[in-house]
Amino acid sequence: MYNIYYKTQIYVGKGALAHLGDYHNQSILVVADPFLKESGQLDRILEFLDTSNDLVIFTDIVPDPPIDVIVAGIKATEGKSIDIVLSVGGGSAIDASKAMYYFAKKQGVFKDVKLISIPTTSGTGSEVTSFAVITDAEKEQKYPIVDWDILPDVAILDSNLVETLPANITADTGMDVLTHAIEAYVSNKATDFSDALAEKAIKLVFEYLPRAYKDGHDLEAREKMHVASTLAGMAFNSASLGINHSIAHAAGAKFHIPHGRLNSILMPHIIQYNANVTTNGVRTGNLNKETAERYQQIARLLGLSASTPVLGVRQLVDAVRKLQKKLDHPTSLSAYGVGLEDFNENKREIAEAALVDKCTITNPRVPTVEELLKVVEQAF
Ligand code: NAD
């Protein structure tokens, strides 16, 4: 028995923002990315809201939002009875809004509050997930909050909002989509429902991410990637993720690498570890057959021959590497700029934090700290 729960109402495409006009006389906390404020995009979005609404606008979001930003956002609502938390931005703004809602509700400050999310990156899928990642800057750790209550009530997908996204962030966030879909597909909680969502997302990423990267004004590619991001979010919201994300959470807080780029660097190593297959054919221990077959299915989905599970794994790794090349992505932590001393100082702590990360629970292979350490070293 399993339970599938998709509550978010999703408005998609041209005119979707008009849904904001349905709200009247509401007290709204707007949590937004500072870029959107500075570029004037936020004002254009907020024009869809009726003037009877009372707005508290909080735009002090930074990437990988730390706890003090969450506290400041809640503080900004002092003296108001908030009805809606509306987030506009990338995963950082959306996650921050979900964390504000989560903690303010726990403190009894927010009661019946609706969550509405408008993503302006095509990456995290946070607009349809019950996950929010916050950072403890002092401890240099990222924590995923996982709670059904933070699943947004409404998501508005308007790919025109993504057109201003620079090429490098398009690539990073797009690889985050791919990581979500692949991890959901091989998760030990994958179902026919999450498979269907993940399969479509994977196909869309391989087809449209290089186009969106090459030409940010390619609106068809932008639209497909925006949808792919939400599909992958829906997939992992039910199947959850794996150690690609566990390590990315732990290493991201140490090395401050954009989340999607870090996922991308790790991905080929995670695939090979999970299947227990290497690209040069040397393998100790047994093939993890069931997982290798799942990767083989992905490779076939991409039109590759993948005539055996081992070949499927190798071809998928190769396809990921080719995609990274098209996106000018670094393929190792050292190529990104992480120094050897810094790496050696932090690698064990990263492996230890990854082991206890919530995403590790659904990884298809149960790792040890030493194995995680080895994967991290390979990624260096
Ligand atoms: P982000 O929100 O940190 O944004 C990255 C950069 O893009 C920022 O500088 C931002 O100002 C800019 N930006 C955003 N929209 C823009 C636009 N339309 N035009 C130009 N610039 C724009 O990046 P992200 O990858 O969307 O989110 C990453 C965060 O989400 C991380 O903290 C990660 O851990 C978290 N995350 C959450 C989930 C989840 O399910 N909740 C899943 C994956 C990742």
Automatic annotation (TrEMBL):
The keyword Oxidoreductase applies. CDD domains: PDD (cd08180). It comes from Streptococcus australis ATCC 700641. This is Alcohol dehydrogenase, iron-dependent. It comes from the Bacteria. SUPFAM superfamilies: Dehydroquinate synthase-like. GO terms for molecular function: alcohol dehydrogenase (NAD+) activity; metal ion binding. PROSITE patterns: ADH_IRON_1 (PS00913).
